[in-house]
Amino acid sequence: MNILIFSLILLGGAYLAGLLGSLTGLGGGVVVIPLLTLVFHVDIRYAIGAALLASIANSSGAATAYIKEGITNVRLGMFLEIATTAGAVGGALIAIFTPVNTIAILFGVVLIFSALMTIRKKNEHAAQTGSKLSYLLKLNGSYPTPAGEVSYKLKNVGGGFSIMLLAGVLSGLLGIGSGALKVLAMDGAMRIPFKVSTTTSNFMIGVTAAASAVVYLQRGYIDPGIAFPVVLGVLGGAFTGARLLTIMNPKTLRIIFCIAISFVALEMIYNGLHHQF
């Protein structure tokens, strides 16, 4: 296979990854990394490097729109990025010295967890009483709805911060946005309405990925020949997915995609256990 055919196939696969990631909320990295490792037999560290760059581009594009709409809690995102960025740098350093089979197994486990998180019941209610820390750090906010502005308060800020640290480690180690853990921290622990938690998570993913990407770049694990078509494809798919989301039933799509991604996860775990990476 010559470089042109490889790039075109990779561009098409990355486009599909970005499309599915946008429609399901899992992000393109969960498809890009298995595509590169299982189909093209690319070293998983190079696959992670490419996925991190795609996460940066994807997050940057989507975050701008959500901030303009007034949904994203920027102050909260900046506060939680302290945890995710520190964790991401640590995770990226750990990944350099971790056997690729171990990374593959862990990736599969996180994929299954992420798939389950997308179909769980979401928190849509705004808490009216917050913790002392949320008032002290001025993290409470509001977001627009068709019925008017809705105010919300944050609970268990410390617990959410701790989960974000773990999310950052996994992001640096596996090259995915760890959006499922970020939403779990905000939606589950801090009781933030789901719309705010997902948009704020998207805002944070790019910064977290950038911190990890620096380590991979220094170690030589970002190959332009792989990363360029991946970034273009994921971006194109994400923008298409954003348009299709208004006319498709996302709940049914999430269930179908979660079943498919679970099979991919099991394949990653199986190959990891049998040292096929």
Q: Gyration radius, to the nearest Å?
A: 18 Å
The overall strand count is 2
> Roughly what is the average pLDDT, rounded to an integer?
81
The largest beta-sheet arranges its strands as 1-2
How does this model look, in words?
By secondary structure, the chain is mostly helical. It has one domain. It has helices at residues 3-24, 29-39, 44-69, 74-96, 100-118, 132-136, 157-174, 179-189, 194-218, 224-244, 250-273; strands spanning 141-145, 148-152. A two-stranded antiparallel sheet has the order 1-2. α1 packs parallel to α10 (224-244), α2 (29-39) packs antiparallel against α3 (44-69) and α5 runs antiparallel to α11. The mean pLDDT is 81.
SSE blueprint and pairings:
Blueprint: H1 3-24, H2 29-39, H3 44-69, H4 74-96, H5 100-118, H6 132-136, E1 141-145, E2 148-152, H7 157-174, H8 179-189, H9 194-218, H10 224-244, H11 250-273
Antiparallel strand pairs: 1-2
Helix pairs in contact: 1-2, 1-10, 2-3, 2-11, 3-9, 3-10, 4-7, 4-9, 5-8, 5-11, 7-8, 7-9, 8-9
